[in-house]
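This part of the workshop introduces the protein records we will be handling. To make this concrete, we reproduce a full record directly below:
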Amino acid sequence: MIVWLNGTHGAGKTTTSALVQQLIPNSRVFDAEKVGETLMDITPGLPETDNFQHWPPWRQLVVETARRVLDYTGGTLVMPMTVLVEQYWREISTGLAQHAIPVRHFVLHADQDTLRGRIERDHPVPSPFRLKYLQPYAEAARTWLHAEAEVIDTTHLTPAQAALQIANRATAGSPGHALPVPSQATLARATAPG
């Protein structure tokens, strides 16, 4: 199974994914951004773009990598990755479905003011890259994204609370699916750098 955490920058995907991984037995975090970083390292470079998701090989490699990892390890992959282009999500979700990989698609949502505030607090100089995705996220949420996923409104949730909701929903129907609230030690491990 894949637990895909979508949403724009500042929604808390990275922090929440580490906590979800701590809560779901036999799970691993797979950050599909690393696939994009690999493609960006190709020399000479691939055609110029402002986002590696525009390269078709990225979408295909995300599917293939997830499939191969799950074939090798079993269990669950927790994948924190923003996908705001509906066609790209269709390519990825269809590719995973062709390999009979179930996907639980969650969107970590917050209102625009909350997202902007989180992005501005993250670094002394707010990331223009992250800020430029606020409007595309709002458009995707309005037109298709929220209809395609289970929306978790993180505006007033801690990452631990969001992770617990996601883990409980993703494992509902599994034996012993009611999960405990993560301990402070678990939270510290999951959010520690490196």
Observations:
- The longest strand covers residues 103-109.
- Confidence is low (pLDDT under 50) at residues 175-181, 190-194.
- Residues 15 and 192 are 10 Å apart (CA to CA).
